[in-house]
Amino acid sequence: MSGADSSNANSAEQDLVRMETDPQNSHNISEEGHETLNQEADDDQQAENREDGDGESGQPGTEEAEEGKRAKKSKAWDDFREVVVKGKRKAECIHCLTKLARTATGTTSSMIRHSNSCVKRKIHLRQLSQASQQSVLNFPPADAAIFPIPPLYSGKFEMEVMREAAAKWVLMHEHPFSVVEEEGFNYMQKLGMPEWKKFTRNTCRADCVKIYETEKKILKNQLKDVEKISLTTDLWKSKNQKIEYMVITGHWIDCSLKLQKRVLNFINLPPPRRGIDISDALFKCVKEWGIETKIFTISVDNASANDVAVRLLKDTFSRCNPLACGGKIFHVRCCAHVLNLMVQDGLGEIVDIVENIRDSVDFVGRRESRQILFSEIVQQLRLPGRKLIHDCRTRWNSTFEMLNCAIKFKEVFPMYRERDVQYYCCPSEEDWEKVEKVCSILETFWATTNIISGSDYPTSNLFLQEVKRIKLVLDSKANDDDDFVRAMVRKMKFKFDKYWGECNLLMAVAAVLDPRQKMTAIEYCFPKLFSPSEAQQNIEKVRNAVFELYNEYLQANELRESGNKKDSQVSSSSVSESSASGSD
Whole-prediction pTM value? Predict the structure, then answer.
């Protein structure tokens, strides 16, 4: 190759590099480079024509016609289409519709330069790249949490979606809002998602409120399709603020015949809580949710203020909509609370013994060295288990579990006292005997509390059998040889007769509606709970209540069907009128 040819080739290569890397400055390419490139492209096209066997391809008169027939093999045509403007063929960009003149030789250099600088083409390619990312199929667990997991994940990062997920995480696990400002949290997020942006606790709080309002609207729409809703109330105490709140929970059966429950509101009712205050707060909550005409029953604790509140609410709700069974089953006393009152009377007989056992458990668990010593004695005596259970003073069932566990180690405590002179609250042998007798009675109450305290399954149909079971235990222990046991049972029976001495109509009807029991349930249980004359009267009362509820159900069903017929007639008439007007 001569020196001139070598310099021309190098100049052409440099021009190509500048054209591809910097399309905006491509107009600075020298005329000599243009002529060289055009000449090479022209030679290539003539060679292709010769390979196709077209002997006339070299003639000037047929060159333009043959070029239109040849397939466009250049990749530049992926972003262009050929159009004719005023009799001249041009190349039009499919993205921005810019038209470029076609050269006589058919080169695509100008088209390539335009494609590299076309803004709309770059946007289009970016959108295609994002759309081509394969979505990930998620398999959420069967017992999914409160917020469901999306079934498809596109892989595209969206900060708003991540903020919402962080707010849901804070709500689910009760984290403080300030957790999103912690350095470790943001470091973890930034490491996995470089696009992550730190936000403040106020933003997190606003996101949580937004989620609450969204979920509230969803629940409010769901409650529109619910026919009857039962309410339960309870007092919760805040650990940090030391403020008592009344929590209102709604229970209903959805269209899939599944039992549902939701916390509807927390209401701050400072003491003294009067019945009128409780009534007004409850009705305001129910009115806010739009369910004042759907209330079926209200379950409350056994307090005089609650009795007044339920009486006022009964009058208020009966004006909104007739109550079921004339309001005879509107007020429900909390069964777990009644059991708690009975058990507290029983534990009151051994309050000093319970305190000694509680102090013993706290003493051993306070230091690791004491726990090791206690465990060594347990191993020496070859007893099952090695740990004691602490109780919650306000929950009798946890106190029962503590006593029941401590009984298994009653031989360990005297031996531990011999090895630790600081241990002074060891129960005596007589104390352990009393605890064993108390636990044998409370075991029935503990099992009943666990059954009727469930919230994921119906419990009203189980009440009658459990009450009968407790009544039989108390009757059998009322004539015990031990004076201590008789005195304890006497107090517990007094509370039983006070709250359950009369027929609980709702629980009895629920037992009858259970297809496994029907009327046989009350015919078997009532003679064991009441005197013969009272048992027969209560059986008739329950039977009449069942028929009354059935008649109310028939009337409501007839009204519903008549309303559906009217709606169908109105819709059909509107359709016929519209068709008639259309024909006119």
Answer: 0.65
72 burial via Cβ count (<10 Å: 0-12, 13-18, 19+): middle
C-beta of residue 490 within 8 angstroms of C-beta of residue 442: no
Compute how many other C-beta atoms are within 10 angstroms of the C-beta atom of residue 365: 15
State how far the Cα of 444 lies from the Cα of 489, in Å rounded to an integer.
13
Tens digit of pLDDT for each residue in 251-301?
998 888 888 999 999 888 887 888 899 999 999 999 999 999 999 999 988
Instruction: Please give the structure tokens belonging to residue 492.
Output: 């517990």
Q: What confidence category does residue 334 fall into, taking pLDDT thresholds of 50, 70 and 90?
A: confident
**Mean of all residue pLDDT scores within the chain:** 80
SS3 300: strand
The amino acid at 380? Q
Query: What does the alpha-carbon distance between residue 399 and residue 290 come to, in Å, rounded to a whole number?
Result: 41
174 to 160, 161, 202, 247, 319: CA distances (angstroms): 21, 20, 16, 17, 40
Residue 331: how many CB atoms within 10 A of its CB?
A: 18
Residue 542 bridge partners (DSSP): none
DSSP track, 54-104: -TTTTSTTTHHHHHHHS---SGGGGSEEEEEETTEEEEEETTT--EEEPPT
Burial pattern 515-548, b for ≥16 Cβ within 10 A else e, equals eebeeebbeebbeebbeeeebeebbebbeebbee
Share of the chain above pLDDT 90, in %: 29
Beta strands across the sheet bearing 80-85: 80-85, 88-93, 99-101
H-helix segments, 478-531: 483-500, 505-513, 519-529
Q: Is 97 left (phi over 0), alpha (psi -120 to 50) or beta?
A: left
Encode 164-195: b = buried (16+ Cβ within 10 Å), e = exposed. bebbbebbeeeeebeebbeeeeeeebeeeeee
pLDDT (average), residues 457-477: 88
| Residue 168 token pair | 């849901």
Bridge partners of residue 236, in order along the sequence? 245
Work out the number of other CB atoms within 10 angstroms of the CB of residue 279: 21
- Which tens digits make up the pLDDT trace of 94-107? 999 999 988 777 78
Residue 572: C-alpha distances to residues 566, 569, 575, 576 (Å)? 10, 5, 5, 6
Contact 480/438 with Cβ under 8 angstroms?
no
Q: Are strands 152-153 and 136-137 parallel, antiparallel or unpaired?
A: antiparallel
Number of DSSP helices (H) and strands (E) in the chain, helices first: 21, 10
